[in-house]
Design a protein that fits this description.
Elements lengths: L8 H7 L5 H15 L5 H8 L3 H10 L8 H16 L1
Helix pairs in contact: 2-3, 3-4
């Protein structure tokens, strides 16, 4: 899907972002969607056309904590134990 956003030229000029404005808006959308848990890390990577590691670094650089809680850690720990037993 393509989304078109109109931004007044005066605002674009004051931001000094004309060449990169579309990308910056996409990144801001990705960050906010991840923060509000509407997108996963993998979906952020897909949206920005980068690897999961790059998406993780992208979010970290912008001070966005991983959506990873204690239950996620326990689930990962059990999965690792299962794999190691095989």
């Amino acid at each position: 899907m393509e989304v078109i956003v109109s931004v007044p030229d005066k605002l674009v000029e004051s931001l000094g972002e004309r060449p990169n404005l579309s990308r910056r808006m996409l990144e801001a959308f990705a960050i906010e969607s991840y923060r509000s848990e509407r997108l996963s890390l993998g979906q952020v990577a897909e949206l920005l056309d980068i690897s999961i590691d790059e998406a993780n670094a992208f979010l970290k650089k912008r001070g966005v904590p991983l959506n990873y809680d204690f239950e996620d850690m326990e689930r990962d720990e059990k999965a690792i134990e299962t794999l190691l037993r095989k």
